[in-house]
Write a structure and sequence with these properties.
Order of helices and strands: EEEEHEE
Strand content: over 45%
Number of helices: 1
Number of domains: 1
Oligomer: single chain
CATH class: Mainly Beta
CATH architecture: Beta Barrel
Length: about 140
């Protein structure tokens, strides 16, 4: 038995590229920067080192989300790894490993984008109001 599942979170490195195949299937390609924490051997300090991951989403969700997946947006992605290979017009062989997206969650608010902001906000849904209407404290 094999398991092919991956979960990553990070910031989009570019605006998502939306297109359609010849058969009409929507394809949305994006890049995600995922930080890895490593100790610098020269300074002894811990530092973030980015890994750049290509991700692709297919279907109706690709159409619906294309306009919101812009550079700097923080996302969490769940999917599976897919390896592909091809040959360039010059005859060089190339290959890459990418994430085929099954689920995506926005981790930054609609207004924060690349300018920062709270990473705990849900995209497009305001935080629930804690007001009961009569200014009483909520007991939790």
């Amino acid at each position: 038995m094999s398991i092919n599942r991956v979960n990553i979170s990070g910031n989009l490195t570019r605006d998502a590229e939306h297109r359609a195949t010849a058969s009409g299937l929507s394809v949305l390609k994006m890049g995600v920067a995922v930080n890895d924490r490593r100790k610098n051997q020269e300074t002894g300090e811990w530092e973030d080192v980015p890994n750049f991951v290509d991700a692709t989403m297919f279907g109706a969700r690709a159409d619906a989300l294309a306009q919101y997946l812009v550079k700097g947006t923080k996302v969490a992605i769940e999917g599976k790894l897919r390896w592909s290979s091809w040959e360039t017009p010059q005859g060089d062989k190339r290959s890459k490993l990418e994430v085929v997206v099954d689920e995506i969650e926005f981790m930054s608010s609609r207004n924060s984008g690349s300018s920062g902001g709270s990473s705990d906000e849900s995209f497009g849904s305001p935080a629930p109001s804690a007001s009961t209407g009569d200014d009483e404290e909520i007991p939790f």
